Request: fold
Amino acid sequence: MNLKQFMERGQVCPICSSNSMDLLSGFTCASPYRYENNNLIFTREMRALNKNNKHYKVEYCIDKITSEFTIEFILNDKRLNYVPLSVLKRFKELDKNIRPYIFSRKCTNCKRYQYWSDLMVLNYKTCNLGDFNINFEYYGVYKKIESKYRIFKIDNDYINEKCIIHCIDSEDLYLAEFLNFPNDRPLTFNISPIKFTTEHEITERLNKLLVFT
Reply:
């Protein structure tokens, strides 16, 4: 799939049905980006450690259809037609330190769903990121059991074609919003990747599996 298809897969959160799916990437420390036609543009600061050097901005422009990318350098809000070799050297060091890159989409409403792309590097010969694949996916679902919540952390690993389930009983419902459970080693078991249907159906299915663990 291309970047456009990768993003469209998670337009709506399957758990809370909101459209609050944020796009995150390894190109920036936070998640600032903008759209220009079919292009998705990420901006990153390339700040100088030496006070004698200048602070630049780097713009990664990615075509959502073809996955082709361009990189531009900005100084004092002006795009450079000529990039000094010293700046290119600094950029290569930056790229070396932060790669490989990864894309993900996460629900900012319920915070209980997220999926990730495979790891990518910038191929300067082809100037193309290639195909996007979904390697990992996370669901946080729960079921009320008497006075507590039975919380399931579902990690679909599409690389190894398996799903790792973490289960814990807790009064703290907010545990379903986090990717990591506390250090009290919750019960875990492995099955094939789970396709999300409804929260009720999945928790009922997993609750029955607990009988055989």
Q: What stands out?
A: The chain has three helices and twelve strands.
